[in-house]
Task: inverse folding
């Protein structure tokens, strides 16, 4: 069984479009995250949600909006896509927030903006 | 701002060679430390973690890491690498709710 799943796995789109990436975890975790991994493999946290409430919102353009309909889902919506948004986006979850919890990562969504 | 440094960006080893990947962080308070591995085309997986206690922690697949508080370091080691260890390795430091990943080290093991 997949613990953290993301759809789609690949996403190719034109500049200016709006797209969403979905994430679901079946681990019963309370906290979910979105990370962006750039072409140099640098991994940076974007958002963290604990029980459907945003607890981290790093310096991310407001074109990116996370939405958590319930604690098992954390979707990422991106408006007006730009070339620089091309990256691999990873969703992750942990049992609770805070550092005592291993994060489980999804398989990633490779976004390519043309 | 806190930072996590992985000075070895790309390491190439022959099979059976010993491995040590460096990780240094800048935060002076209580930290929780992790090493993650990302095999080609796959997601990140936890190798090992340190919260407290014995500073030498053992993880999966023969990996270990040593927390040296005075040096702000958490280096990853393996006595004998295999071709299947070819991957990206990420050090991560967590303080409270703040997560910081290093820039990663790409390890290539030559058969």
Result:
């Amino acid at each position: 069984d997949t613990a953290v799943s993301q759809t789609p796995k690949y996403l190719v789109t034109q500049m200016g479009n709006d797209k969403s990436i979905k994430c679901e975890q079946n681990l019963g975790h309370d906290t979910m995250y979105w990370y962006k991994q750039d072409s140099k493999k640098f991994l940076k946290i974007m958002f963290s949600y604990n029980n459907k409430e945003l607890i981290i919102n790093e310096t991310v353009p407001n074109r990116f909006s996370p939405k958590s309909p319930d604690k098992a889902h954390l979707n990422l919506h991106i408006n007006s896509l730009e070339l620089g948004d091309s990256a691999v986006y990873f969703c992750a979850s942990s049992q609770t927030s805070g550092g005592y919890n291993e994060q489980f990562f999804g398989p990633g969504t490779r976004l390519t903006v043309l | 701002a806190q930072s996590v440094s992985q000075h070895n960006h790309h390491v190439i080893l022959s099979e059976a060679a010993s491995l040590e990947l460096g990780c240094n962080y800048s935060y002076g308070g209580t930290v929780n430390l992790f090493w993650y591995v990302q095999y080609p085309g796959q997601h990140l997986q936890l190798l090992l973690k340190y919260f407290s206690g014995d500073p030498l922690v053992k993880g999966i697949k023969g990996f270990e890491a040593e927390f040296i508080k005075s040096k702000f370091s958490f280096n990853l080691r393996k006595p004998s690498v295999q071709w299947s260890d070819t991957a990206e390795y990420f050090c991560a430091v967590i303080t409270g709710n703040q997560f910081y990943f290093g820039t990663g080290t790409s390890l290539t093991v030559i058969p």
Summary: DSSP finds no helices and eleven strands in chain A. Chain A touches chain B through 24 residues (CB under 8 Å). The two ends of chain A are 34 Å apart (CA to CA). The mean pLDDT of chain A is 89.
